[in-house]
Design goal:
The chain is built from 6 helices and 13 strands. By secondary structure, the chain is α+β, with helices and mostly antiparallel strands. The chain has one domain. The protein is globular and about 65 Å long.
Length: 287
């Protein structure tokens, strides 16, 4: 909220502005008991295969439940935009807003990527993060955010009056069209807000506007996930490169990203039960 000082300040304004904080969705109520098993399982990983996503492009990948996958920086500092779907039902997709409400604005090891309503269950769990050393910087910035959306040609047109076709939104659309042989309109309705992998972001301290700054990601860094469901993923290599200057253009220097898949020989991993969808009865007060 911006303060324009057009309204009358109430006499008890200081009292109203200094109320106690209440965490909306306490993370202590989430079951994270599987992390001990996942931490042991990831120490016995066996490589399956990998794909490389060229700069300013996107590719789809499929991961089976029980497998691990990594998004890896391979050529130079580069951020990526990730969409996730239940591969058996594309209507169940990553819900960045609820993930943000449950885990905070930036994700790391132990946090989960939750799916859309009405299913509301974890699609993937983050099992390792080579950038967890970054924490929070003096600007209030951190990495792997779920506060931004994805760069898109509509906002670019609004702000620059130019048509640009390789924003992450468009990259994700093309990849999904090719993977599922569907139309632009069908694909665009399925593309959703992302996990901004490796991106360093926050809110300014004065106007609280969304900002980006140079990502600290280095060649060899990766973010690792455990697939809680059979997944279709799409990763876009952002046209902003490491987002140190601007995006939605061909001006930034961009690099490839790699997605690799892994399986574990840890036998107790098979003991993890499939996570059920929400048990809410879907009545919505209608009877």
């Amino acid at each position: 909220m911006k303060n324009y000082n057009q309204s009358n300040k109430p006499s008890d304004s200081l009292i109203k502005k200094n109320q106690n904080l209440v965490i909306c969705y306490p993370e202590t109520n989430l079951n994270k008991s599987n992390m001990q098993i996942l931490e042991k399982a990831r120490k016995e990983l066996i490589f399956i295969n990998s794909i490389v996503i060229p700069p300013r492009d996107a590719k789809c990948f499929n991961v089976k439940r029980g497998e691990f996958f990594r998004i890896e920086c391979v050529d130079g500092s580069q951020v990526g935009d990730l969409n996730l779907f239940n591969s058996e039902n594309l209507d169940e997709k990553f819900y960045s807003g609820k993930t943000r409400a449950l885990h905070g604005t930036h994700l790391s090891t132990g946090d989960q990527l939750w799916s859309s309503l009405p299913q509301l269950r974890p699609l993937a769990t983050i099992t390792y993060d080579t950038l967890d050393w970054y924490g929070w910087d003096n600007d209030g910035g951190s990495v792997h955010d779920v506060i931004g959306t994805r760069c898109d040609p509509y906002t670019a047109k609004l702000l620059t009056n130019k048509d640009y076709h390789y924003c992450c939104h468009s990259n994700l659309i093309r990849a999904l069209m090719n993977e599922k042989n569907i139309s632009i309109n069908q694909a665009e309705k399925l593309i959703h807000d992302v996990l901004n992998v490796f991106m360093c972001t926050g809110f300014t301290k004065d106007t609280h506007q969304y900002f980006m700054k140079a990502s600290p990601v280095r060649t060899g860094d990766y973010l690792e996930f455990y697939a809680e469901e059979d997944l279709l993923g799409i990763l876009s290599t952002c046209p902003g490169g490491n987002c140190s200057s601007k995006h939605s253009s061909d001006e930034a220097k961009c690099f490839s990203l790699k997605v690799s898949k892994w399986k574990s020989s840890f036998t107790k991993l098979k003991d993890l039960k499939k996570i059920k969808t929400s048990t809410y009865n879907n009545n919505h007060g209608l009877s």
